[in-house]
């Protein structure tokens, strides 16, 4: 059995996330995104690789979309309405609610850019009708064999990591996630799962970030300074997510500092989006969630709708405009107007896709930007780069991979050189096989498979009773090998033989059966044959007092004295085993020893010993399991002398 | 598996309660309160009436047990106690491992359980039920406060009314409520918990989403599936290594507000516990109980039921007029209310069913809006504001058409808008200043509590009961005669309405056909009302009777990892092959799994050999000589069969040793560990062993 993982997008790049995974006969498409940096066919994943005939309904079991960002959902209406996929699509409630807003906003901008429509408003509506919403942790039975489950991912509202399980094989696709809570969302959360494969994003494969509060302060200071000087602040964002997060931040600050400068949202977005956020408040962080009964945190007081006529109105203001990264549309329109004034401020998110104006602004300090052949924009305004991001950093990725400990990991959604570094770390530090395939490459990994067997009650019951054995053993601790050289560590080892008492029986045409070893012979009508070891030998003895003869001495009561003497000797010399003094007999595990008075003991090897009064015979027997222990005891006994009074 | 029905409950507000034993774990299903028994108490008395002593004559009359019609003076004038499930206190709470709560009503008794000292069970509740249940308990505590303040701090340990002399003189009707039919229920009464107790209780609750898997002790997988009765209510599946159980509480296939009954989620379970007693209350009014429904033969062996057929049945279960009927009922209530307010009377709606209230609010305001009548709607409850705010943020728990509202960006329920527009007013209590300044009559008031003994309803009912134009809308299931006793004489109109509280019996058959359980636990009380025939085994249960259900699976399934299995060394034995197991047995998600363990290499040497048969002495000598050990057969005890019988082998080289071979055991006598282990190896080769 194997899992095939075809990366259609976001392979060694950021944009158009799309991975098709074949797992035990089921084929799942995770995300269906578009690339913001391209306007040609490279904008969408190459769907022809899924099915040459275009029969996607039979080629795919389902489509799962992790969150509403365009690089994860942008190609979905195209895939369903133009390519004709009609199968089930799963996403969380907020994603289903908010995705149409994102798509519609994008469609309009695409229109405005003159790229021609790839899909229409009706396409979006039709596409969303096919979507089955899921709740977090809800275990959805897609069909008889495929089970999927969403886990909280932070990042944006409704973002989820998806777990998929077919038979014994299981995997997680993370989508984008954040391992630290932000202003309005909690941190990603997932159960400890048994996974064959983890596909994780790696946007910040090498970055380690410190606390976000300092960075937030920087942002607020930059905004405050700008509006205090009468400047205008442009925050190009996508309609949802970052906008609400920053807005909560600004609202809070406005209230604390008693600022009256208007905060605008570009047309149409705010009121509707916030309506959604209010209903979906259960998907935000605990702190925000608790506000629902008193005043919903998404009831913004200072936020107003923006009108195009306000672009050149005098006075300071803060404007959230779409789309983000200034790829075009309204944010570009405003940017062209506001960029030439050094009073104004443009705030950019932590990450901009290559090829966008946002990316150009971030790389170096350009004074002029060529929009196209004829248009050039003077850039004199201040640029502030938001250094907090809704993506996890390298530490977060490592933490997640370590926590889940999958058998294999695949990195997507990142930059090639950084991904290579992270891949090395995952393989060397965590010992997990890791891959970072390029677009349109397929990675094949083996998957878990279990053999089913029926276990007998006796076996199960014997397994329920702990049967630990403790022993100290010295071994070389490998983790010290490189730094301190080899170092022998003595440690307590615990063994438990419950499982090895089980016997697996396989017959032709019958289901495999596990039985306890005690049941085996009965089942097959065989008789048990026990093999034991025995040895009877003399032990040296000295006496402090003169007592006539050994036979006088060795009366019944004195046997016990001898045994208890022997017990003392053994407990001094023997490091392992539990010594039981049973009066006439001494027992260590299966090893038993007693004083032997019979001259014709069958366990005595005749002729090898001379019977004298200075020694006393001990008869020992033991089972094969304690072979080593037994010989150790015998050698101790042979080497010591019993003192009697 | 064992199953005991502790109580069959009584109606929507008092769900049934059971105790279940699965895989050695004790599971309590529901922990409700019987709030209908509050009827024996007098509501907060008014003025002097409270101090009026019982005249000697009436006492004497009562002592002589002269039955007369009940009047308000017969009610118990004391701080009310609350009646828990009568048989639950016979069980030691510390032995309960898991508590499953299906509805907010099934939760009201939970603080009593969590209060007990050694209680340590895991409590599973859906997120929405937990929130609504908590609000209901908080509301109960705050309503009780009023009575508490009236009577002052009394003797909490044993109130006067529970003394035998006082109980003796109670009219038989009240006595039956207080003591039960066989006078065994007095122990079920408890003084109410406090707000702190509720908080502590909620801390012990683990909340779940619909279809979320909770794994108890690695062994049981517990999952809630929506039941459609109310927001957040659920049915449960419990999967253990030997048994899969589906527990069906009162369920509604198509709901007007809550997520529909997810019966498909309950498929694949071999045992079904049917615990929807709602038809017991409704069918009583049916013409004739003897006409049983047509017995539909259903055989669980008939798996050949093609998928289409199953889908058809499933579709027919969902295709329903019940929810339409329900909406018609609500519309009728609204017109009655409308007629009342038009005539200048007010309407009092003490209904504590969240979904019904939400739908009534929508219907009522639609009706009012279409007319020119400006009548305010008041909701008076200490938790109204929070409850209504909560219902507007839980799209995941609502029915499909409410969810559509989320996707189109509209509020889930109309009350969000109506509150904003000032058409609905929320007040925490009857004496809040906002209420006094806003009050306007006629009006429509929604307030707790349906028992008519607690909360704002008591005051409003006293106020309106002489007004013939006013209307009181009651749920059916409430004993109206007893409930209205303290408010008599009543001029006010009373409308009693039954609401859908579970599935109808006609749907049980098709449901069974869809779910195909091998075993069915069905209430005895419903027996004559329905005939379930077919090959499936049916156990009828009745209150306080423990049923033992035989195990269906002989053995437990165990999963062995293939990488481990490939390392096994196989050995033929008769017609089969056997191997000793290795690795680590783990219990994960209710499954036994054998995985390759991380055992240190040296402990692997432990030999746990099992031998059978008896060794062939000559063969043994040959094996020994291969190892360079020489010896002779010294003594054969059985002359007749020298080949295979017992004897002693005398080893002479390299050292002296003896092998004493007998029928079922062999003793190796050697003075040297090396020699001994070689001899052992030789015997191991000649013998069969593993």
Number of strands of chain A: 33
Name of the top-level CATH class of the domain at 322-497 in chain B = Alpha Beta
Please tell me the CATH architecture of the largest domain in chain A by its name. Answer: 4-Layer Sandwich
Number of helices of chain B: 20
**Oligomer type:** heterodimer
* CATH architecture label name of the domain at 322-497 in chain B: 3-Layer(aba) Sandwich
* Biggest sheet statistics of chain A: 7 strands, mixed
Strand content of chain B: 15-25%
Tally of strands of chain B: 36
What is the CATH fold-level name of the domain at 322-497 in chain B? Answer: Rossmann fold
- Helix-and-strand structural type of chain B: alpha/beta
Give the CATH superfamily of the largest domain in chain A. Answer: Ribonuclease Z/Hydroxyacylglutathione hydrolase-like
CATH class of the largest domain in chain A: Alpha Beta
Mean of the pLDDT scores of chain B?
Answer: 84
Overall SS class of chain A: alpha/beta
Numbering strands along the chain, what is their spatial order in the largest sheet of chain A? 6-5-4-3-2-1-22
Give the terminus-to-terminus CA distance of chain B: 36 Å
- Please give the share of residues in helix of chain B: 25-40%
